[in-house]
Description:
Layout (H helix, E strand, L loop, with lengths): L1 H13 L8 E9 L8 E9 L3 E7 L5 E10 L2 E6 L3 E3 L4 E4 L4 E6 L10 E10 L2 E12 L9
Parallel strand pairs: 1-10
Antiparallel strand pairs: 1-2, 2-7, 2-8, 3-6, 3-9, 4-5, 4-8, 9-10
The chain binds copper (II) ion.
Amino acid sequence: xxxxxxxxxxxxxxxxxxxxxxxxxxxxxxxxxxxxxxxxxxxxxxxxxxxxxxxxxxxxxxxxxxxxxxxxxxxxxxxxxxxxxxxxxxxxxxxxxxxxxxxxxxxxxxxxxxxxxxxxxxxxxxxxxxxxxxxxxxxxxxxxxxxx
Length: 148
Ligand SMILES: [Cu+2]
């Protein structure tokens, strides 16, 4: 019984009904990797027309995707997984190097500049979940990401 209710909720979330928050994502990009590098990050600007939260993300091209925050801990830059990122109504929230980011992990092959990484964001607003499809184009940027 519980499983069938969960399945029904998933189906309705995917169909983007009228009550869904209008979430727009701009300037989505991912960091190109060096050969052998198994992790990278994706970054973007997110804006919602209703108070919402980014709960997670997934990608058919990346085995493991997490939402992370990077912060200074003393004089060391560290990152950790976060449960969600608040998307206040009307405010543009930046996922950017040195702050919040989408962590791309266990990469099966390097990401080259120009590659497009499809991402599905899971956003919750008013107790309802919806998905937002994003295409992040890879850019070659100096400075490797810190490993965990
Ligand atoms: Cu990270």
